[in-house]
Structure formats: structure tokens, C-alpha cells
Design goal:
With 662 residues, the chain is mainly beta. The chain contains 4 helices and 50 strands. The strands form 6 sheets. It has an 18-stranded parallel beta sheet that branches.
């Protein structure tokens, strides 16, 4: 037996502007009439519709004139209402134009054809109220036909054991912005009120709202409630054309802003999403001195959790997406961004007060709108692609940034005092993981300004723009940060690839290679550390610099000095090199003693010892053994012959010392 229920409980005011194909079983038809409260079985009059009972939900027949409200002959459409071989021919629905809360749904079983009108016989199966319509109301009659009956009483497919599909699933319909009467898809008129009404309606029922291809102008912000799922025709490329859904935000404020529904206060949350749409803004004319308009963000997610933004193009936005907390202390989180493209001119994505995992993948910022040098030069000097404040547990996949100022910047978000007391906690980026991050043609690839930043990149590629920038590709400031990069590739910088400032910062790099790097490739200033797990393939004139610690598996020379406890020998030479892993340091020394020394030879160590250490070697001239030692807190090695005596004049000595450095 067929299961009969209304196909979709979402009520919308009009289907009239849709293109109808009468040959498609699942098409939804709509005809506009003036409602009459007369119930007699006669022609209702041109453009009118009546029911067979005063109590409207008890009526068994809909009497519809063969002319609609505009005088168009719709008899062919009405006659098609009983084309199905199913006993239930379909579902006839009446809606009040302008008030979607007034409606009736009938199960139709037959259509009779008196002169000038049609009697659609059936029974009412659902209603908003007993008699929702008044005399003279403008109503829409929509019809959803059923499929032909199958021999088994279920919809059958040409396979041995078909899965049962109910009539409901066959008759599924969806809300469409064209269902809201009079919407303009040319972009010539402001449709913010219409879109707001539609978005609010679908949000209340947790339904998707579909937008067809073409342009909808919005001259005021749209409040984006939880439960609302906005669906367009697909993400566009560089071309602005009618094949895709565009929101043209014609004002300077926020485009879409979420209602706050944060779990920070212990409450629940409901998913909302935007998919397959494209945003554009009005920007100044392109030419010398171009500066983008000071527009706000196209999508503003405030105090909201469980938000999805997917397959969206921000063609020429000044600012694309923002995540932040609210003034009363509600944070955001669990925001998924996937396949986000565009040419944000000032800022791509900014996020702070994010307290739960966000997953972002396939972020691609590139000159989709304009390659004009007046535009690209301003963007390269001033813009930020991704800017993060307090952000916990970010999980990023593939990100590609081209031609912007800074690709990824992390800053310190201050605590925010709340009106009722207490604070919304600030801080920096905690436990960010990224798969592949590619910063191409940008001034700076990574800039961290916050304390205790923790990040992990599987691969980080930075290629400075042309002409080559006079700034390092990756710069780490603040204090106490930890960044791990499995594979690092840096191109084009006149001063270096990596620079650590502040204090207590550690950057660990698995593999590193560079091209067209000037100056010093790795710089760790005092109090900071760079840990290289393999020898870097560097093209810089100088590989390592700064007063901090740079650990590498290769032996690196350092400027050691040689003397003796009994006076400075004449003509003594020293070649010294070291490698460091953590605090464990291995030093190799090649010494020529010269003449005039006595006591023990002293050689400066590369680092102060935290724990005493020792080493041994041989006197290549006398073939005797030599020993070396450094004490805790010491800064020099003491080297003696086998009996503790001075090794002698004009001797060549090689030895290795191992110790734990500070």
C-alpha cells in the first residue's frame, strides 16, 4: 500500500514564477486565483476559485476556473491533474499570497470538466486552520502529481529487490527564493527584505533555501538564523555571468551575520550553512592610486557554532569571512570552510574567540577579479589572507594564497571585559595543524605576534613576490611559541627565510630547501631556538645567524680561540666545529699548539656547559693520547697530555668533546 503524506511541510507563498514542464511527473505547478467563499457547484467566475464546503478543511471538491487571475487559459494544466494511473492523482495545495501561514492541502483523486471550470475531487489531509481563507483573498493553487501505480503497490525499479520509496520521497519539493512573490533576479532592485523573509522562514523549519542562477542585490545586512541552509547554483570562476548565483552586496556593511547561538553558555546549537553562492561588491574604478572600498565582511559569524560555508566565491570582497565572539561573551566554533575562493582585497578570513575545532580545506585566494597592477600592488602591500587571534584546535587542509601581503598572521587577542562581570578569554593560536600551506607571490608567508603560539605544518611553501621582498618569509615574534614544519620550501627574499625574535620560541623543521634567498637563511635571536632535523639545502650566502641556538645534524664551524693556562702560545691555530641536538653538543677540534705554551691548552666552547663533559683524541705528532674536559658552567675546554702535562710545542692534535650545553 502506498504511504500518503504531505511531501514537504515547509509552507511558501508562491511557485508561480517557476518554469513548469508538464511531462515531468514530479513537477510542481502553481496557478493564481481570487478565493470565493461561495460553495455552489457552478463556474466561480473568471480568475476565481471556490470550495464545496463553508468549513474549508471539510471540502471534498475544489472548483477552479479555467482562467487564472490574469485571464490566462489554464485548462490544460488543470486537466493534467488526473493523468497519473495512481488512485491518488497528486496533492493540491492552496496558499494565501503574502501570508504563507494560511494553507490547505488536498489529496486529489479525480478531475471533472464542466463548462468553464474544473472540479478537483479529493479530501483535505492537512490545514493551517479550519478555514484559513477569506472572500477576495489572493491564493495560489499548486499541484504535485504522483507517479503511476506499480503492480506491487510500491515504486518499482528494474532490479530483483527494489528498495521501497514512499510517495513522500517521490514528491519531495524544496523552498526556492522564487516562491517569494516578486523577487528580482536581475540585480537591479534591492531584495534584502525578500531574502530576509525567506531565510527566516526556512531557518525556523531547518530547511534549505535555493537560489537560482543570476544576481540578487542586497542593500542591507541579512540576519542568518540557525537552521537556515542557503543553497546556490554553484561556485563561479573569474567570469561574472548569469550561470551562477551572485549576491551583490550594494551597501558597505556586513553581508550575512549569524544570530548568536553559542554553546559557551551551556546552551545547544543548530547547524546552518551557505553553499554554492558567489559574493561581489562595488569597488572604485581601477586605475592609478586604487584603494579598495572599506566594506565590512561578506559573512560575519558571531557567537555561533556548527556553521558550514562551502563552494563559495568572494569575487572582489574587501573582507570575506569573520569569526568572532559577541559582546556578551559568546564565542564561536565548529565552523567548517571548504572550497573557498576569491580575491579578498583587504582581508580574507579573520577569526578570534574561537574555542572549538574548526576544519578548513581548499582555501584559494588568487586574482579572480583583477590582475591589474594598480589592484595587485595595493593588495600585495596591505592585505592579510588569514588572520587568527584566540583560536583553539584549528585543523586546516590545503590552503593556497597568491599575491597578498601576509598569508597567515597570528596575533594576541586581549581578554574582553563583559558587561555583567568576568571576561571573554583572549590569547593566541593553540594547536593549529595544517596539511599544505602555499604562500605564493606574497610579502610574508607566516607572521606570529602572539605568545605561546603552537602550530604544526606538514608542508609550508613560501615564494616572495617579484621584485624580491626585503623581509623573511617566516617571522616568529612573541614569546614561548612552538612551530613544527615537516617540509619547508622558501623562494625569493633578499634578507633570509626564517627569523625568530622575542624569547623562548622554538621552530622545528624536518626538511628545508631554498632558492634565491639573500642574507642569512635562518636567524634565531638570543633566547630562541631553531631545530633542523636534516641538513638544509640552502642557497643563501650565510646559512645561520643570530645570538640564539640553531640545532643541525651537520658539523658547523665556530670562531673558537686557543690559549694555555701558562700563557698564550705563539703561532697556535684552532679549527673548531660542532653539532647540537637539543642540549647535547658534540665538538670536534683540530689544534696546532705553536710554541711557548704551558700547563693545559684552553679552547673556547660554542655554548656554556650546563653539566660537565669530557672528550679524548690523539696527538698526531707524538701519537700519544690527549684528553679534554669542561666543567658545569664552564665556557672553555681544558686539554692535556696523557700524564696531565702540556702536550708540547708544535704538536697537531685532533679530539672530540661531548657535553650538555645550556
Amino acid at each position: 500500500m502506498l504511504e500518503i503524506r504531505p511531501a514537504n511541510t515547509l509552507t511558501v507563498p508562491s511557485f508561480a514564477s517557476r518554469t513548469v514542464n508538464l511531462d515531468v511527473d514530479l513537477g510542481a505547478l502553481a496557478i493564481r486565483y481570487v478565493f470565493s467563499t461561495t460553495i455552489t457547484d457552478s463556474d466561480p467566475g473568471n480568475g476565481k476559485l471556490r470550495l464545496s464546503a463553508t468549513q474549508q478543511d471539510a471540502a471534498l471538491t475544489i472548483r477552479a476556473d479555467t482562467l487564472d487571475i490574469n485571464g490566462v487559459d489554464v485548462s490544460g494544466i488543470l486537466d493534467a491533474f488526473d493523468d497519473s494511473t495512481n488512485p491518488v492523482k497528486g496533492f493540491a495545495r492552496l496558499y494565501a499570497v503574502g501570508d504563507p501561514t494560511k494553507w490547505l492541502t488536498f489529496e486529489a483523486s479525480s478531475v471533472a470538466s464542466p463548462a468553464g471550470y474544473r472540479n478537483i475531487t479529493g479530501s483535505n489531509i492537512a490545514a493551517s486552520e479550519t478555514s484559513p481563507f477569506e472572500d477576495g483573498d489572493t491564493v495560489l493553487l499548486s499541484f504535485q502529481p504522483t507517479g503511476d501505480a506499480g503492480a506491487s503497490g510500491v515504486f518499482e525499479a528494474p532490479i530483483a529487490s527494489p528498495a521501497i520509496r514512499t510517495t513522500e520521497s517521490k514528491l519531495w519539493d524544496r523552498a526556492d527564493i522564487r516562491d517569494w512573490d516578486g523577487v528580482d533576479l536581475t540585480g537591479a532592485n534591492d531584495e534584502a527584505a525578500t531574502v530576509q523573509s525567506a531565510v527566516t522562514a526556512v531557518g525556523a523549519e531547518g530547511k534549505p533555501l535555493h537560489f537560482p542562477a543570476n544576481t540578487i542585490a542586497l542593500d542591507s545586512p541579512i540576519t542568518w538564523p540557525s537552521g537556515a541552509h542557503i543553497v546556490g547554483s554553484g561556485q563561479a570562476g573569474r567570469e561574472l555571468n548569469g550561470t551562477f548565483t551572485y549576491f551583490h552586496i550594494t551597501h558597505g556593511g556586513v553581508g550575512f551575520i549569524t544570530t548568536a547561538e553559542s554553546i559557551s553558555d551551556g546552551g545547544g546549537s543548530t547547524n546552518r550553512s551557505i553553499k554554492g553562492v558567489n559574493f561581489r561588491r562595488t569597488q572604485p574604478a581601477i586605475g592609478p592610486g586604487f584603494v579598495p572600498a572599506a566594506h565590512d565582511f561578506d559573512i560575519d559569524i558571531q557567537g555561533a557554532y556548527d556553521v558550514n560555508v562551502e563552494d563559495v566565491m568572494f569575487l572582489n570582497s574587501s573582507r570575506a569571512i569573520r569569526l568572532k565572539g559577541t559582546a556578551n561573551g559568546l564565542g564561536s566554533g565548529r565552523v567548517t570552510l571548504n572550497n573557498i575562493k576569491g580575491q579578498p582585497l583587504v582581508q580574507g578570513i579573520e577569526a578570534t574567540n574561537v574555542y572549538d575545532t574548526c576544519m578548513w580545506d581548499e582555501i584559494h585566494f588568487w586574482p579572480f577579479w583583477s590582475f591589474d597592477p594598480d589592484v595587485t600592488s595595493w593588495v600585495n602591500a596591505n592585505s592579510e589572507a588569514i588572520k587568527l587571534g584566540r583560536f583553539d584546535n584549528a585543523d586546516f587542509g590545503r590552503i593556497f594564497i597568491y599575491g597578498m601581503g601576509t598569508s597567515l598572521v597570528a596575533y594576541e587577542q586581549a581578554d574582553v571585559a563583559l558587561p555583567g562581570g568576568g571576561v571573554m578569554p583572549g590569547g593566541g593560536v593553540n594547536l593549529l595543524r595544517a596539511g599544505s600551506f602555499y604562500s605564493d607571490g606574497c610579502t610574508t608567508g607566516l607572521l606570529t605576534l602572539s605568545d605561546n603560539t603552537t602550530m604544526h605544518f606538514d608542508r609550508f611553501i613560501h615564494a616572495g613576490q617579484v621584485p624580491t621582498p626585503a623581509v623573511e618569509g617566516l617571522r616568529m615574534f612573541g614569546d614561548g611559541g612552538r612551530i613544527h614544519i615537516n617540509d619547508l620550501i622558501c623562494f625569493r627574499s633578499t634578507v633570509g627565510a626564517v627569523r625568530l625574535e622575542g624569547t623562548g620560541n622554538l621552530m622545528t623543521i624536518g626538511n628545508s630547501e631554498s632558492l634565491s634567498i639573500g642574507g642569512t637563511e635562518f636567524i634565531a635571536q638570543a633566547g630562541n631556538r631553531i631545530r633542523l632535523l636534516s641538513k638544509p639545502a640552502t642557497t643563501a650566502p650565510t646559512a645561520y645567524g643570530g645570538g640564539g641556538i640553531i640545532e643541525t645534524p651537520e658539523m658547523r664551524t665556530y670562531a673558537a680561540t686557543i690559549s694555555s693556562t701558562g700563557g698564550a702560545p705563539s703561532g697556535a691555530t684552532i679549527n673548531a666545529s660542532y653539532t647540537r641536538r637539543g642540549n647535547w653538543t658534540t665538538v670536534r677540534l683540530l689544534i696546532t699548539t705553536g710554541t711557548g705554551g704551558s700547563g693545559a691548552i684552553t679552547v673556547t666552547a660554542p655554548f656554556t656547559a650546563s653539566v660537565g663533559g669530557s672528550g679524548s683524541g690523539k696527538n698526531n705528532s707524538s701519537l700519544g693520547m690527549v684528553g679534554a674536559a669542561i666543567s658545569a658552567g664552564g665556557t672553555s675546554f681544558f686539554i692535556n697530555g696523557p700524564t696531565g702535562a702540556y702536550p708540547g710545542d708544535s704538536q697537531t692534535i685532533t679530539l672530540t668533546v661531548e657535553y650538555e650545553a645550556v
